[in-house]
Amino acid sequence: MSADASFVASLPPPPCADPWLNVPAAVELSRLETEEEITKAALTEATAASFSAAAEAVLSAKGAGSPPTAASLVASELNLSGEIKLSDVLRGCLLSLDLSENSLEDADVLAGDGWCWLRELKLSSNKLKRWPSSLKCMPALISLDLSFNARLSLNGANLRPLSGLMKLELAGLGLTNLTGADGDDDDEDDDEREPDPKAPIPSTPLSALVSLIELNISENDIETLVALAPLRALPSLQRLDASGNPVADNGRYKRSVQSLVPRLKQLDGDNLSTLTGASKHAGAVKDADSGTSAVFESNRDTSTCSCLEGNPCVEPLCCKNWKQRYFVAHEARKRKGMFEPKGLA
Q1: Nearest-CA neighbor of 148 among 166, 168, 123?
Q2: Can you give the pTM of this predicted structure?
Q3: Each residue of 15-30: pLDDT tens digit?
């Protein structure tokens, strides 16, 4: 037996079964948005210290059972601050957690490393200064909202573990670019220049997000078309909202974005039609589409199970344990020392 196979075989069972086992990721995202096949409960009052007990009580009252199955918890506008702790059972079964519009500011706001099955996390309108370290402990996460945390910036180290993310909301962070650099270091001529869709893809923290379908970067401070060039690093992107940025007022904005992201279906809430009547630009879009596809396909590694590197596989073909891919990835991260100390639990 190979070392990888031995590792998979030696894993202990997760704290509870995945409530959405074998549900395709795209269907999971739809369920989260429509709140189907999930028991939703809301806290009306709680403190960080009483959070776990209050959460279990309200979910039990909703008939989620013990342990709760396919549960969604809303705990917004409660003025929560400090470290949020949940029991192992609740952390293992919660699929959606909304902590928006509180006063959370610590990077270790979510304690523990057992967030095996969490699909959605909302932390918008808090006081976060750094990305939550517990994101590394959420291998099944597909939707993340960090909007309106004014002190946050793009960080590749925080995004690398989130290769399965399909929806990311970063509105109102004061971003001036998508490279993670401080401030706006564009050349003076960039105000007039359009990004070249065939140029090498610039380095960006977004490069890790190969599964991302929807990105919200609205209400930021992005001024130039060139600053949008890193969008080319997102091979699966279909919906983009960059409204409220100065660049959105540029007359060439829509055309440039379409050339950078040929697969895009929706921009700033508007559905995009085929570029009929603009044949020469349509040809450029087709070339860019082919180029992006080639880059994406050339970077795919179908020879190994990515779960063993800490990222859940997106295809069953070479996965060592497709049914438990999220848990295997979770344990692999722990083995590689990618988790916070156990004492945080």
Answers
A1: 123
A2: 0.78
A3: 677 888 888 888 999 9
